[in-house]
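## retry 2 of 3
previous attempt timed out at serialization; input unchanged, resubmitting
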Amino acid sequence: MLDYAKILSENVQEIKPSGIRKFFDLLGDRKDVISLTVGEPDFMTPYHIREAGIESLEKGRTFYTSNNGILELRREICNYLNRRFGLAYEPKSEVIVTVGGSEAIDLTVRALIEPGDEAIIPVPSFVCYGPIVELAHGKPVFIETKEEDSFKLRPEALRAAITPKTKLLILPYPNNPTGAVMTKDELEEIAQILEGTNIMVLSDEIYGELTYGRRHTAFATVGNMWERTITVSGFSKAYAMTGWRLGYLCAPKELVTQMHKIHQYAIMCAPTTSQLAAIEALKHGDPDIEMMANEYNRRRKYILDGLRKMGIDTFEAEGAFYVFPRIGKFGLSSDDFCQKLLDEKGVAIVPGNAFGDCGEGYARISYAYSVEHITEALKRMNEFIKELF
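## retry succeeded, writing output
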């Protein structure tokens, strides 16, 4: 019998599974569970977008597109980014349509990172960044952000983390899991530190449409950051299109030309049907964005109020669709708190340490669920907290 441990690469075997999915998988076939674990809109993809996808299939548009995506889609991406965020990109040479934002992140890291290069990653943050850097034989350098700083990257912390080996800074704002949003002034402080270096920036702006109280600032619009920024986004969150698996990256053509080669050999092209549906989303989907963002904001206020009423201190999330309550005072680790809540009350949330060691003492709760769903979860959580004492 083959010893697969000796056959598989050590690099792959050392990568840890996603802490989010690991906990989600614990739910199994339980029917009584109220889950607030997954960062996926509960809205169905808007009808006119689905209709565009269906129409493309009925017309037989089932063939490959150009590697970097349908040119009309790339034009609409550029129009959208300019209209909504003031970004300027050239559709023929500065855009790649990818299989979700995750491919765009992987593509960026593989194009930039060589063995031994360092990538700075603020944490808590989405689980994929570190492993993707490690798979490229780079070294993730994690900067702990703190609640007293509103979970934002502080310029002095960035300055201290930079070494001669630093190749990349990953900026994950609006942030998953904390809901933190960086202001233009705060981003300008980060930009000043990067001036005069060769450090590139991967700005993951997948939640850029989901901010509450202020508009998102695209990092490439700050100072002279355009030339060093790879802007990553997609359709999953803003348009409720998670299953369509469509994202994109925008960057200077010198970078896109090289990234194209990786994308060409690894993927060929993103799904044709998804691309054609996305054209419709970009042309006519602004009202859908506003409707869903307004509803998420209503849920955000509702869940923050509910958690605070039961005595759980919770950071005032300003973006995405997560809250990151502090649970350390209950005398349980994040893992134990979430496991006990699941076992005793059938409520599933994600331990904060799934997003970095500094997430210990916190938990991530998604409000991408109906108010009725959230209400029942809060009711059970309140019972759980009372029984802990």
